[in-house]
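Posting this for the archive.
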Amino acid sequence: MQNDFELNSYLYIPNFFTEEELKQIEPILEKFHQQWLNEFDQYFKEGLINSHSLTSSTYLTKEERFQLFQFITAKKLIDIVTTIFPNKAKFLNTQLFFDPYNKEQKNYWHRDIQYTGLSIEEQKESIKTQNVVHFRIPLKKEEGIELIPGTHRQWDLPIEEETRLSINDRKPNDVLERGKTISLNRGDLLLFSANSIHRGLYGYERFSFDIIYCDDIPEFNAFIDPKNQPNKQELTLLDNRVF
């Protein structure tokens, strides 16, 4: 499993979750999403396609927050986390991904690391060793994502960098020859490296819950919001291998 992930930048496990498991969190995710839409309607209409920080949200009750933590630390998930990461992993955040308000809005190739403020040279060095992994859980059938396998450790080919960064008249939604599409169904699990070149594919009214884990190293401390982490009382009731 770890070798496959390290080679390909992703790991796809169909039918990983049961209906019973999904129904434990689905009402919580839907509640959060509706209240988020109410508050951020303008930004949604202007192009936002994801939200974040569900576990620190005022939209949820303490009980709902704890239910999310129970799901995030389920043994079947954490066993994979500890297998995939070469050293200790840390829970980073949660996100919801959905279709854009404007159905004509284009998706975009990117690496998450390009938004961290690191220089290109620093990014090239960081991806050689650092790990940030999305565990994507689709609540509906969706087109999924398209990624370029192996690029969590390898830098872009020239045309890929030009596309991702809009250089030489290339656009971030242009077709890339090495792209591989992974379509998703409700109940599947997709792990993919945030450092890889990837893009979300819109359509089917996607609604996916992402749990994000990273290396437990000082470089990521600035990106970890303590409010998203469980408190001392919650920790005593959870698998604490990622806290």
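Helices lie at 2-8, 19-39, 41-45, 62-72, 75-84, 120-126, 158-164, 232-235. The radius of gyration is 18 Å.
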